[in-house]
Amino acid sequence: MKKLHFEYMMSNSFDNNVTNHRFSLKCCPCDNARQKVQNISIKINNEPKIFYDCDTFGNKVINGIISEPHNLFEVIVSGDVMTGLDICEEYETDICKTYTYKYFTPFTKPGKLLTEAYKNSNIDLIDAPYDKAAYILHLAHKLISYQKGVTDITTTAEQAMEKKSGVCQDYAHIMLALCRMAKLPSRYVVGMIVGEGESHAWTEVLCRGIWYGFDPTNNKLTDDDYIKISCGRDYSDCTVNKGVFNGFTNQHQNIHVCVTENK
Q1: Measured between alpha carbons, how far is 36 from 55 in angstroms, rounded to an integer?
Q2: Can you tell me whether residue 162 is helix, strand or coil?
Q3: Which of 9, 24, 46, 114 is the most buried (most CB within 10 A)?
Q4: Three-state SS for 178?
């Protein structure tokens, strides 16, 4: 068990002023069986009117509006998280809630390369769901190489396979595709890990009523160094910032994450 301190910083800059900016943010860590959030602080420039909600997947959502002209939108979420409270993310008692995680999405629909990778594996020879998920973890890690700048947020699992490289989002989508081919309910996760840089993505798989975290990028199970923020069917359900505004402009987003252990 660890006590981690985190700072999640997101900034959107606009080339020209925008008005009537309505936003929806998913950048607050959640409470679950494995982690407990404490001392949360949320700071948003321009002091917008905000209200809190939860989406279909149980993720915390911050909604708000900034009516005045502005060319910068900054959000800083910080706090402490007790991790390692359990070996799993969540205990699932309502099996009906898991059906949506069995089906392919545009990001996870397998094509020729993913289908071949599955057929050439030993996945179907493994009976126990957890053992099957662990096998898929190692397989997904080996299928591509980690490389920034080759893929982007629109890249699908099959496209990452074609490029033979990608980042954490691509590893997670590839593992999701393989898990769903194996009939294992699985979901995409956005979160943070100890260190400094960007947010991270991994996968959770349902094994006999228990959601376990698997990180195919690093080829390991999630542990006390991980902080979960949100989950969904794929990346699109976990987008950090969605919104609309009045104005013709380009926007530029930057996300910086810092997670340290409180000794």
Answers
A1: 19
A2: helix
A3: 114
A4: helix
Query: 3-state DSSP helix/strand/coil percent for the chain, to nearest 5?
Result: 20, 45, 35
Cα-flanking dihedrals φ and ψ of residue 162, to 5°?
-65, -40
pTM (global) more than 0.90: yes
CA pair distance 145, 161, nearest whole angstrom:
10
On the CB side of 202, how many CA atoms lie within 13 Å of its CA? 26
Q: What is the largest CA-CA distance in the chain?
A: 60
Q: Rounded to whole angstroms, how far apart are CA atoms 97 and 227?
A: 23
- What is the H or E stretch that residue 99 is in? none
* pLDDT tens digits along 189-230: 999 999 999 999 999 999 999 999 999 999 999 999 999 999
C-alpha span between 49 and 182 (Å, rounded): 45
Q: Which parts of 45-114 are beta strand (E)? A: 49-54, 60-66, 70-83, 90-91
165: Cα separation from own chain's centroid: 19
List pLDDT tens digits, range 101-133.
999 999 999 999 999 999 999 999 999 999 999
CA distance 151 to 154: 8
Produce one character per residue of 26-44: b if its CB has 16 or more CB atoms within 10 Å, e if not: bbbbbebebbebeeeebeb
Q: Which two tokens stand for residue 182?
A: 């194996």
> DSSP assignment, residue 150?
S
What is the phi/psi pair of residue 102, to 5°? -95, -15
User: 65: which 2 tokens?
Assistant: 């509006």
Cα gap 52→41, rounded to integer Å: 14
